[in-house]
Amino acid sequence: MIECLKRIIREYQNLEPPEGLLPRRVAIGSLPGKVSVVTGVRGSGKATLLRQRIRQLIDCGVPSENILYLDFADDRFYWMRHENPDIILEAYFELHPQKRGNETVHCFFDEIQALTHWQLFIDRLLRTEKCEINVVGSLLPSPEGEATSPLSGRIVSWEIFPFSFHEFLDGKDIECDSPLSTKQPLTIQKAFEDYWEIGGFPGVNGLDQRQCVEVHQANWNAILASIIGHHNLSHPRAVIDLAHWLVDNTGSYYSVSHLTDFLKSLGHRVRKNSVVDWLTAFEDAGLLFNVNIFSNSPTRISVNPRKVYCIDHALVTSVNSGILTNRDSLLENLVFVALRRVTPKIFYHKTKTGREVDLVALLPSGPGQDRAVMLIQVCAALADPRVKQSEVRSLSEAMVDLAVAEGTIVTWRTDEAIPVGFGTIQALPVWRFLLEMEPLT
């Protein structure tokens, strides 16, 4: 076994890191005594980010022998599920005994969740070896969220999403960082129409519509299969039916009781606790996200329904039935993901009169600063005066409720400042909203 592992290590070390990869607007790094953990949905480009980091190290003069890269999704590592991972160190230092204790070894472990008790292994590496560690997984619950984790307090986390609109423009060599000229908005609007159709998953870039649907569906099925296998779920058909109901109802409300009753109506014998566990598994995988009502009261949060969103709006159109999803719900999903890149603290709001505000985001703030609150309505078109009045009224009531002086309506085309009694509501086109959110990431 150890000879097989040594052969794989040499193979990866001899691979030339690819050039010409689209740079992401996120860069992983390292801190002494910390482990860099990169998470994100399958197919979002995590492995590419690792390869870019390896390319940077080699360009800076780090010898390839000092890089230990292993991808545990490789079939040849299947037996590692039943082995002590210390065999990895044994194999590496048999190949390079002079490195131990003398030079920094840069470790990159992809799909590390395939290793049993991987956190214990990484903890031992940090304590006993001179190394820099980067781990990647598409099914990793946050170790920082586990009080008993051996890595608690020693994690530097990066959550990777499919391409943002800004990164999509980078791939098309469309400049959007500097102040826009009079012609640039038209170019960006045209590019947004492409982004709207194919979404942000790197694997669909350059494909036609039919191919995009096929790739999205294959990725969706692979994500669900990996969730079911990783968690050893005993009702796979119920898990799949639940995922399809959720993606069919993107941007809509649900309760656990309703979901349980729905699954029972299909003939599944499931309990509420199981449904809660599956919802958590979907979120840990970066596939589907849950949003609570904005409230400090645990009771109010528990008795009100949640909303659900998917990682990519185009993935939704490729896998859902198309019966319940419309342009407004897809647009709201796109806005949610843009916010989710910035902060996990996203909610919906009910005003004192019962009106809904689609999204409330608590944005990161600097030291000593109050956390900024962003109120957002999503409405594709404001041409109908009654629709516009309703959206403005909901936002203005929420601005008073939460003492926020600004509100935002994300639209398809409208760009307009709307004064209200407590402040100003800015209606702006979705492409501009996406670009304005990007510097916050």
From TrEMBL:
GO terms for molecular function: ATP binding. Residues 34-169 form the AAA domain. The keyword Protease does not apply. InterPro entries: AAA_14, DUF4143, P-loop_NTPase. The keyword Disulfide bond does not apply. This is ATP-binding protein. PANTHER family: AAA+ ATPASE DOMAIN-CONTAINING PROTEIN (PTHR33295:SF8), ATPASE (PTHR33295). Keywords: ATP-binding, Nucleotide-binding. It comes from the Bacteria. Residues 232-366 form the DUF4143 domain.
